[in-house]
């Protein structure tokens, strides 16, 4: 049986930074499910589908081909044969992903892919519904969060480091709106699983969070 670690939490809590590093240290596969929803959203944007066009989103999700490949340990999302990693990190794509991920057909398609990946290898998978829906039997479940102020500050620093200009208040507003959408949608909303361990990283360093999770994995039942 493969081993699985599920990390859920709101936007900007540091899930991917932490999951990526833990995967490297433990030799697990890192599965970034947000990147899959982002690739799907990119496809919708390219097809000019608007956020309120639910039927078109359902149809689009059925025709699109999304797969995952790994290159030097990095997850590549392949959208209809194209590696779209360079195009999925913008705020535009993130906001569309938050809307289109509420669509049931979009979720069915991607959850299926996520479960297949977890059945084949030891994984650390991050997202919004991993512990509650995708992998309800995950060996370790973590709910990673931080205050919206801290999350906005981290996102701001990440974007300015990349040379992108942005406004910290706008980022915080966006984060709060995204949290609201992700946690109030009808199907598989963002919420802490009953058996998940809560980590609030507002006053923790990346290394402290990583060590906390690794301790849990080592104390687990592998
Ligand atoms: O983690 P992220 O910012 O890359 O995710 C982008 C959006 O995708 C997020 O706002 C909600 C959605 N998402 C989801 O609904 N379920 C997941 N397991 C992962 C992401």
TrEMBL record:
Cite the entry's keywords alphabetically.
Answer: ATP-binding, Cytoplasm, Kinase, Nucleotide-binding, Transferase
Q: Top EC class per UniProt?
A: transferase
Q: Which InterPro entries match?
A: Cytidylate_kin, Cytidylate_kinase_dom, P-loop_NTPase
Q: Name one Pfam family in it.
A: Cytidylate_kin
EC number in record: 2.7.4.25
Question: Tell me, what is one Gene Ontology molecular-function annotation carried by this entry?
Answer: ATP binding
Using the record's annotation, list all stretches that form the Cytidylate kinase domain: 5-218
Localization of this protein: Cytoplasm
Return the CDD domains for the record.
CMPK
Under the cellular component aspect of Gene Ontology, which terms does the record hold? cytosol
- Binding site residues for ATP: 9-17
The protein's superkingdom reads: Bacteria
A biological process (GO) of this protein is: pyrimidine nucleotide metabolic process
Reaction equation(s) it catalyzes: CMP + ATP = CDP + ADP; dCMP + ATP = dCDP + ADP
Q: Family assignment?
A: Belongs to the cytidylate kinase family. Type 1 subfamily.
Q: What is this protein called?
A: Cytidylate kinase
What's the source species for this entry? Candidatus Galacturonatibacter soehngenii
Q: Which gene encodes it?
A: cmk
